[in-house]
Design a protein that fits this description.
Bound molecules: ligand LLAZDA3J, S-adenosylmethionine
Largest sheet: 7 strands, mixed
Mean pLDDT: 96
GO molecular function: 2-methoxy-6-polyprenyl-1,4-benzoquinol methyltransferase activity; demethylmenaquinone methyltransferase activity
Low-confidence stretches: none
Protein name: 2-phytyl-1,4-naphtoquinone methyltransferase
Strand order of the largest sheet: 3-2-1-4-5-7-6
Structural class: alpha/beta
Shape: globular
Order of helices and strands: HHHEHEHEEHEHHHHEE
Strand content: 15-25%
Helix content: 40-55%
Keywords: Methyltransferase, S-adenosyl-L-methionine, Transferase
Radius of gyration: 17 Å
Function: Methyltransferase required for the conversion of 2-phytyl-1,4-beta-naphthoquinol to phylloquinol.
Number of strands: 7
Family: Belongs to the class I-like SAM-binding methyltransferase superfamily. MenG/UbiE family.
Length: about 230
């Protein structure tokens, strides 16, 4: 399963950023900005972006923590990480970002290391959500926050139908034209398996987070889980 997921992301790397802009009509930039804000990262912080992909959230985090801060981006797809490093050279040279190829279920950091963390569209894709939350808990300092953005099924029936229509009639056909049908068809079943906001709150509490909130955005089609260690 882990290898299959890594293969999906390695394969979509050449079109990933362009399709995110097209398919979300640019909205993913706003959702990512909200996520960084909810992580409460501030100048000078040591911060982590999990499942960083091509680095969209990582760059935003870097802007927040500034030159006195530190930023790490972790992902297990070498192709997406290459894109992140290329974008970084051209677009965001300061502060230096530490790009690490690795599994977020086994983070290469000491316990109590980070002041803030973000994760964008990663939690739905990991093979063990509880383990992922446990790793986030472990590497955050006591009192530090993480903000976790992902797709959701809206609770409202008609909005669910609109979302499914959009996936079936826009997202998958556009991806099919690029030879990436299966890769994008994967989104729909992954949404069905993904715990609801309420269920995520429960899981995060069980892991031990002191304070947990879930904010639905984009009419419940997206959501941000905010956890404080
Ligand atoms: C940020 C976006 C996508 C991230 C993303 C996440 C994944 O888990 C993937 C898995 C496999 C392949 C690709 C991805 C992936 O790109 C962009 C969001 C685009 C969405 C596909 C659709 C956006 C939904 C809108 C909120 C619905 C608008 C409906 C309306 C009728 C216009
Ligand atoms: C949809 S992309 C999101 C990328 C980026 N965060 C963004 O918002 O554009 C999901 C990312 O999660 C990564 N990923 C999934 N499971 C992972 C794991 N166990 N360890 C590290 N990265 C993982 C994938 O390689 C991919 O880059």
């Amino acid at each position: 399963m882990t290898n299959e997921i890594r293969t999906i992301f390695n394969r979509i790397a050449p079109v990933y950023d362009q399709l995110n802009d097209q398919l979300s009509l640019g909205q993913h930039r706003i959702w990512k900005e909200m996520t960084v804000k909810w992580s409460a990262a501030k100048p000078g912080d040591t911060s982590l972006d999990l499942c960083c992909g091509t680095g969209d959230l990582t760059f935003r985090l870097a802007r927040r923590v500034g030159r006195t801060g530190k930023v790490y981006g972790v992902d297990f797809s070498p192709n997406l990480l290459n894109n992140a490093q290329e974008r970084c050279k051209n677009y965001y040279p300061q502060p230096p970002i530490n790009w690490l190829e690795g599994d977020v279920l086994n983070l290469p950091f000491e316990t109590n290391y980070f002041d803030a963390a973000t994760m964008g569209y990663g939690l739905r894709n990991v093979k063990n959500i509880v383990k992922s939350l446990q790793e986030i808990y472990r590497v955050l300092k006591p009192g530090a926050k993480a903000a976790i953005l992902d797709f959701h099924r809206p609770s409202h029936q008609q909005l669910r139908a609109v979302q499914q229509w959009y996936l079936d009639n826009c997202v998958v056909p556009i991806a099919t034209n690029l030879g990436l049908k299966e890769e994008y068809a994967y989104i729909s079943p992954s949404l069905d398996r993904f715990p609801t906001g309420r269920e995520q709150i429960e899981l995060a509490r069980q892991v031990g987070f002191q304070e947990v909130r879930h904010y639905p955005i984009a009419n419940g089609m997206m959501g941000v889980l905010v956890v404080i260690r």
